Amino acid sequence: MTAAPAAVVPTVAGRTVALDWVEANGYPTKRHDAWRYAPHQQLTALSFGPPVTLASSVPDLEAQIPVLDGPRIVVVNGVVDVELSSMTGPAGLHLLSLLDARRKQPERIASHFDRGDSQITDAYMALNLAFGGDGAVVLIDDDVVLDVPIHIVDIEVPDETRNASCTGVVIELGARSSATVVETRIGVGAEFGGSNIRTTITLGNAASLEHVLLQDVPPSHVHLSSVDVHQAADSRFLARSFNLGASYGRAAYDVDLAGPGAHVDLSGLFFGFGDQILDQQINVVHSAENCTSRQSFRGVLDDESTGIFNGGIEVHPGADGTDAEQSNQNLILSDRAEINTQPRLEILADEVACKHGATVGQLDDTAMYYMRSRGIPATEARRLLINGFADQVVDEVGIESVQAWITSRLGHDDV
């Protein structure tokens, strides 16, 4: 894996620390639990660095993303494309590029960049800190309730010089504010490439955010996504993740329930075909008392695809009154498909309620027989059963146009 010389990297706080970390610690291997099933040969073929060129146009953008009313920030190869973006919004909403935010309000995004050695978890996070100098920033003032979603679109266009881009996304909600943010990740071209996107979310007291992540990059691409969330007292975070594209698609969440009464609800769907590897890495930390967390992820795996669910719940000392649940249900459509599920609990407090469960199954023969006996063709019966399993996650999204986009995306002829 290559990296550009430090002299040509834009000045980013913590860049030297990040690159020094990679030099000292190297890249993840199969010996690291969180990266055990990753395709390391593909990962080491990625070439990261500062943006080389900004694509002047992206064909058929509107046809590839959900149609949403509201502001939009479009990022191409790690750089905000102003022409494709619409960054005006109501009072109390501030939309900026990460470059502009570093100049105008550096104190509000400092926590995204200023990471010491102890806070860097792996080389890909370090590379994002070093090279993800631009991206989208969403800042919402106290007591602002937005009734239209904010759309962040990231587009990767592999370049002959550098085939992988890094993007930063910063979302901050003030006290008692409420918003919906949709992040859509797509790509262009059949050439091998990748993207590394790191989103940091900070929720003030009693703030509420619905965050929808749609990953649908081309099957020749690698996609690395991480979402770091810090929640203050009585805040609510609802995350809906759809991990659909890429040869290797990774969706990682690290949530810190730092204030009493905070609540997080994480749900997701990963739907694999061919030889895709779709990787979910989830960690929720209960740092304060009387917090609640829910994790519910569903996998559908066909052909020779592989699904990973590595879900953790950590209850720290003093986090009494914790209420945490975790569920991973999987539907296997081929005897060549594989699911690796690993629920983890670490409880260091008293008076807590924690439970987890995982299931792996195939299509219900009884239901298939029932539908066939009523004249429904086998292919259609199979599709209905699969859609019924997946729709339980799709229906949780509060935006009809996003639901329609996901449903259309999953309408494979081979389902």
Describe the structure.
The model is unreliable at 1-13 (pLDDT under 50). By secondary structure, this protein is of the alpha/beta class. The chain is built from 9 helices and 19 strands. The strands form 2 sheets. It has a 10-stranded mixed sheet, with helices on one face. Strands 3-4-6-8-10-12-14-16-18 form a 9-stranded mixed sheet. Helices cover 18% and strands 39% of the residues. Strand 1 and strand 2 (79-80) form a beta hairpin.
Q: Give the % helix.
A: 10-25%
Outline type: globular
Q: What is the strand arrangement across the widest sheet?
A: 2-1-5-7-9-11-13-15-17-19
What Rg, in angstroms, do the CA atoms define? 21 Å
pLDDT averaged residue by residue: 89
Strand content: 35-45%
Distance between the termini: 36 Å
User: What is the count of DSSP helices, taking H or I runs of 4+ residues?
Assistant: 9
Order of helices and strands: HHHEEEHHHEEEEEEEEEEEEEEEEHHH
What structural category arises from helix and sheet content? alpha/beta
Q: Stretches where pLDDT falls below 50 for ≥5 residues?
A: 1-13
Strand segment count: 19
Task: Please describe the biggest sheet, giving its number of strands, its sense, and whether it closes into a barrel.
Answer: 10 strands, mixed
Short description:
The protein has 415 residues and is an alpha/beta fold. It has helices at residues 15-25, 40-43, 61-64, 98-104, 110-113, 123-131, 365-372, 378-394, 400-409, and strands at residues 72-76, 79-80, 93-97, 135-140, 150-156, 164-173, 178-187, 193-203, 208-215, 221-231, 236-243, 248-257, 263-272, 277-286, 292-301, 306-315, 323-332, 338-347, 353-361.
